[in-house]
Structures are given as structure tokens and as C-alpha cells.
Design brief:
four-stranded antiparallel sheet
């Protein structure tokens, strides 16, 4: 009986063990069991213009975005699991900032499709500083289109920002005038960074121009010396064009004068159009006209008592001299450097006189000739005749009551 009881118990234990194995093999006895369902996390991207945008879910599942539209993370999540979509890498070229909406929550019983990513292009302003501006009308331009009028030295900013990562190029569209200036750009081009650009430099310098013109009629053996604005001297030894060595700034005055006249022969050079204000071009219309100076020929007369004296200069210029005159001047002047020769053309009469010229010839210098001397003396004659029929002695004749 004891043996039978042990046998029954052994059988029972065996059946229980077999049943456990069967249940384990069949899934615990509850029938067939499938794995729990999973759901995808999807996003819709709008406004993307750059490249390199990478989204991330739950700080690990990265998703590279290549354009606008719908995208799905590769890792699905079970119902009840949480998700959190964030921007891992911002797009560049141009730089953009992207914002996630509906980006976090718990997975329900369907794919998540309402996560939205909106990208907006980030921009930088372009600006800098202008130095030395004194003219009017300066216009700057960025990227061949955004114009900016600048009226004074100081800082400037273009009104149209530039997308981060895109190029900018600042140039001078219109140079200032009155006075005319040339403005140059430094640090004017590059790629817009995240921060605003403030390093563009515009340096304006007032233009300078030469002062010149033409000399005509020059004939001296020594030069004519011109002077501009009382200081810049220019030595000229021949007719032709001239240009002063020192330039004059736009908006500044100029005044050309003759500092030293030419000599040998003496000349007088006059300036026409020699003053004004420099604008935006070289001055080339100053005219210097040189003419040889004429001088009169004259002198003194002594001893003249008769009438009809006529002097002549250079075999052509006749000058009647009145009785008892002490000075004379020919009416026709002679150019400096030319010769003169004074002679007596007709001597005086009543009484008849002989006039002798001294210092009557030479070359005209730089002054009127006054050194010609004419000395007149009355001619004297003997008084005589013939005596006939004289036979006595003691005859005495007398002339003018005195000359016996």
C-alpha cells in the first residue's frame, strides 16, 4: 500500500511537470501572443532654404532633412512611449533658424504626423563707417542693388539685411561732388556672418587738379615767372603750354599772376582767365599773353634859335622841333631790344644853324631813351667885297659900327 501510494504520487508529479512544460511551450497557457505594435514619428518641414538641417528625436535618433516636405524618423516607438523632436544641426548657406511645434508628447495608437518644423532665414545687417566725407551726393551700393545715400562722415547701415552665409559686396555707386572726392571701400565684401557686419570702411579724399594754360608772344632772353595762389612758382622760357607743379584741391581757389616779367627785350605779360575755383577737372584755360614793351626816343636840344629844325629817327620818323625848344620826343615808340638812330634831317634857318647829334644811336632797353643830345650853333660868315678906284691912303671901313 505504501508502494502504491508512492507510485500515484510520482505519476501526479510527472503530470504536473509535463503540464508546466506544455504550458511554457504554448505561451503560458493563454493562447498565441504577438509583440506590441509600434508607431512612427513624422515631421513636416517648411521654409527650408539652406543645407545641413538635422533633426533628432529623444536625443538620439537623427534625421537629415534635404528639403521641404514630410519626413519620418527611422526608429518607431511603442504606444505610450514619449517622443521629443528637436533641431540638432541648423541649416547653412543661408543660415537659418528652425522652430519645432508639436514636437513632444506620448505615442498613442497611431503614427505621429503633426510635428511641424518651420525654418526662417537668419540675416545680418551690413554697415560700417565713412571717413573724410566733405562733398555731397555719395551713394553706396550693396550687392549691386541696395543703394544708400550718405551725407556725412560717420556710421552707416544698409536698409536691406543679408541672409547669413550669403555674400555681400559694398561698392561706391556715385562719388561725391562739390568738392569732388574719390571714396574707396575697405573690407567691403565677404560672407554674412551670424553677427551684424560693422567693419566696412569708406575713406573719402578730396580730388586735386592741376592748374595750367598757354603762354603766347614770349620773346625775352630771361624767363617769365608765374605764381599761383601767391606761392607756387613756375619759370617759363618759351611760348607754349604750362602746368604748375602743385595741384589744387576741388573746391579751392586758384589765382595765377606774373611774378617776374621777361627782359632783354623787356616784355609785359598779362594773365587772362587766371582765377577761379577748381571744380572737378584740371584747369587748362589760363592764358598768359606777352608783348614786348615799346619806349619813346627823345632827349635835349641846346642852342636852338632858328626855325625849321627837323630830326629823324631810323630814317623814317620825322620830328619838327620848334625854335627855342629844349627837349624833344619822337611820336613813334621803339620796341625794347630794337635799335634807334637819330639824325638831323633839316637844319634850322633864320638864323642858319648847324645842329650836331650826340648819343643818337643805340638799342632800346627797359626804359624811355632820353639821352639823345642835339647841340645847335648859329653859322657865321665873313663880310667882304671889292674896292675900286682907291688912290689915297687912310680908308677905314667898319661893319656893324664896331668891326673896323
Amino acid at each position: 500500500m505504501h508502494a502504491g501510494t508512492l507510485s500515484v504520487r510520482g505519476i501526479s508529479r510527472y503530470c504536473i511537470f509535463a503540464l508546466a512544460l506544455l504550458l511554457a511551450a504554448c505561451g503560458g497557457g493563454g493562447g498565441d501572443s504577438a509583440p506590441p505594435p509600434t508607431y512612427t514619428i513624422g515631421v513636416t518641414v517648411n521654409g527650408l532654404a539652406g543645407t545641413g538641417l538635422v533633426l533628432q528625436n529623444n536625443l538620439g535618433n537623427n534625421l537629415a532633412i534635404t528639403g521641404n516636405g514630410a519626413f519620418v524618423f527611422s526608429t518607431s516607438l511603442a504606444s505610450g512611449a514619449t517622443y521629443s523632436v528637436s533641431v540638432f544641426t541648423k541649416p547653412t548657406n543661408p543660415g537659418q533658424g528652425c522652430t519645432v511645434t508639436n514636437g513632444s508628447g506620448a505615442v498613442g495608437s497611431a503614427n505621429v504626423t503633426n510635428v511641424n518644423v518651420l525654418c526662417v532665414t537668419s540675416t545680418s545687417t551690413i554697415g560700417g563707417t565713412v571717413f573724410g566725407l566733405s562733398g555731397a551726393g555719395l551713394v553706396l551700393q550693396n550687392n549691386s542693388g541696395d543703394n544708400l545715400a550718405v551725407s556725412a562722415s560717420g556710421t552707416f547701415i544698409f536698409s536691406t539685411p543679408v541672409a547669413i552665409g550669403t555674400p555681400y559686396s559694398v561698392t561706391v555707386l556715385t562719388q561725391p561732388s562739390n568738392p569732388a572726392q574719390t571714396c574707396t571701400v575697405t573690407n567691403g565684401s565677404g560672407t554674412a556672418p551670424i553677427a551684424d557686419v560693422t567693419t566696412v570702411t569708406i575713406t573719402c579724399l578730396t580730388n586735386t587738379y592741376t592748374i595750367g594754360g598757354t603762354v603766347s608772344g614770349f620773346g625775352g632772353s630771361t624767363p617769365v615767372v608765374l605764381r599761383n595762389n601767391g606761392g607756387d612758382q613756375l619759370v617759363i622760357s618759351a611760348s607754349g603750354t604750362f602746368t604748375f607743379g602743385a595741384t589744387v584741391a576741388s573746391g579751392a581757389p586758384y589765382a595765377v599772376t606774373v611774378f617776374t616779367q621777361p627782359t632783354n627785350p623787356s616784355q609785359s605779360c598779362t594773365v587772362v582767365g587766371g582765377s577761379g575755383t577748381v571744380v572737378s577737372a584740371n584747369i587748362t584755360n589760363v592764358s598768359v599773353v606777352c608783348a614786348t614793351i615799346p619806349f619813346t626816343i627823345g632827349g635835349t636840344v641846346s642852342g636852338l634859335t632858328g626855325t625849321g629844325l627837323v630830326l629823324r629817327n631810323n630814317a623814317g620818323d620825322n620830328l619838327p622841333v620848334a625854335a627855342n625848344a629844349t627837349t624833344f620826343t619822337f611820336s613813334t615808340p621803339i620796341l625794347s631790344g630794337a635799335t634807334y638812330a637819330v639824325t638831323v634831317l633839316t637844319p634850322p634857318n633864320t638864323p642858319t644853324q648847324t645842329c650836331v647829334v650826340t648819343s643818337g644811336s643805340g638799342t632800346v632797353g627797359a626804359a624811355n631813351v632820353t639821352s639823345v643830345s642835339v647841340s645847335c650853333t648859329t653859322n657865321s660868315y665873313t663880310i667882304g667885297g671889292t674896292v675900286s678906284g682907291l688912290s689915297g691912303t687912310g680908308l677905314v671901313l667898319r661893319n656893324n659900327g664896331g668891326d673896323s
